[in-house]
Structure formats: structure tokens, C-alpha cells
Amino acid sequence: MRLRHIEVFNNVYKTGSVTAAAKLLNVSQPSVSKVLAHAEQQIGFPLFERIKRRLISTPEADILYRHTAIMEDVLTDINEISEGLAEIPVDRLRVACTPSLGIDFFPKAIAQFKLMNPNVNFEISSNHYADIRKNISDTLLDIAVAQDQSEDEEIGIINLAKGNFVILEPKNNQDKTYKSLPFIKLSFKSPLGKKLDKYILKNKLHLESTISSDNYQMAASLVNNGFGYTILDEYTARTSRLPNSQITELLPKLEFNINLMFLKNVAFSISTKKFIEFLSDFHYEL
Predict the structure, then answer these.
(1) Going by C-beta distance under 8 Å and a sequence separation of 6 or more, which residues neighbour residue 267?
(2) pLDDT in tens, 41-97
(3) Domain range enclosing 278
(4) CB 57 within 8 A of CB 65
(5) Is 59 within a domain?
(6) Domains in the chain, number
(7) Distance between CA atoms of 168 and 237, rounded to whole angstroms?
(8) pLDDT digits over 141-151, tens only?
């Protein structure tokens, strides 16, 4: 018996009527009669007999229904689960971002998304660039957000926003040539560090540095503690809210991208698709 046979048989058995079964299934009476006849032809014995104008189940049909009724319950559960997944997806999103975007940008985005999608669960981590790319490749992350990433054969990129590099200096600094202040350099191992290195060379800036850091918050904290100045992303500079530091515009300007990262050739869950769409339209104000 096929699933359609079972569905028709169960409804005729429960209602005792082809007409009533047709109404429940929202089909015509001849259609139900045709499917029922085909089912009887397939199994090789009659399921119902008409006695005194009533449709009576055969003993074989009574035995069969004990089993097909269980299947009907299973199919009902499957339908309810599939409808629930479509309407209210309940699963876990594994997401990550770089430390500087984890101060305010990413938490704010997730908080707003959760207000609209309370049933979506998150597993959040903050990692450096190399770890993020490796975790996506190893399918340990669904998506990630990072600065100035490049697309390759495995990892796809969606541009979400742009940002600027700024100068972070001690509060009330009077030396605008910065000659008296040591320079805190971003590590060249990071995409932003590489971009800044190229900028320094292009603009022939002679910056003496005795400290290099791959942690932007640490570089900002050094400035806040009175040691030198640095050039870093405005997200770290503005969201760290350091009381002993001030932000100055970097000229000429240097921009960077904020990118959404995902593994190519992998199907997204409904929740992942929704979150990607949300991030694509998310407007963040520093």
C-alpha cells in the first residue's frame, strides 16, 4: 500500500463513509472510491463490504487498521514538525566575530534579531581571523563577521558595512605631529594590520614603533594608560569608551569592509538564512 492508499483507507475506516472521507480529504467522492479500489487491487483482498446500504470493514481491514493508524499518527507528527520548523524555527546558530566587532556591533545585531526571533538559539564566540576561517572550513561555525576578508574556493563573502581607521591618542594631546609619542603598531598578521602597513608605506609615514599588538583593545588600552598613540578601526576606538583617550580623524582616509563569512556549497537552515538577511539590512550607528 502506498501512503495515499493508507490515507484514504484510514479516513474511510474512521468515518464509515466514502462521502465523509472525501470531505475530510477535500477531494471528490469518485477520487476516494478510485484510490480505495486501487488499494484493494494492490493488496489482493477487499477492505469494505456494503451491507444494507452501510459500508462495513472486513476482518482483514480491522487488522490492517491497527497498523495503519500508527502510521497516520507518525505522519501527523511529521507534518506538525515540518510546519513548526517553517513558522517558528528552533535550532542553534553557531556564529563568531572578531574581538573588536564583539564589543558592540555583533551583540547589538544579535539582540535585535532575538527580539524578532526568540526561538532561535545562538552559540557565540570571538576569535582571531585565522581561527574564524579555519572553524568555518571545518564546519564548526555557520557564519562569522570580520573585517576585510577575502573570498576563496571554500569561503564566501557578503559585504555588510564600511568603517574607517582613526587615530587614538591620549586625551588633551598637544603634539599633533606625534613626534614625542611612541607609535603602537597593529600586527601585520591581521587583515587590518596589513592594510595599515600598505597605507603607511604609500603615504611615506615615518612611524617609530617599539610595540606591536594583534589585539586592538590592548593597543587602545595602552593609549588610555598614557603610552603613545595608535591607528586602529573606529569600532574598537569608539566602543571601548576609554576615558583618558580621544579620537582624531585619520587623513587621508583609510576604509575597511565588514564582511559576513560563510562556507560555500553548504545548505543553510531557515534560521541561518533569516539571520543573514537581517545582517544584510542591519544599520549600526557608532
Answers:
(1) none
(2) 999 999 999 888 889 999 999 999 999 988 888 887 787 777 765 665 556 899 999
(3) 145-286
(4) yes
(5) yes
(6) 2
(7) 7
(8) 999 999 999 99
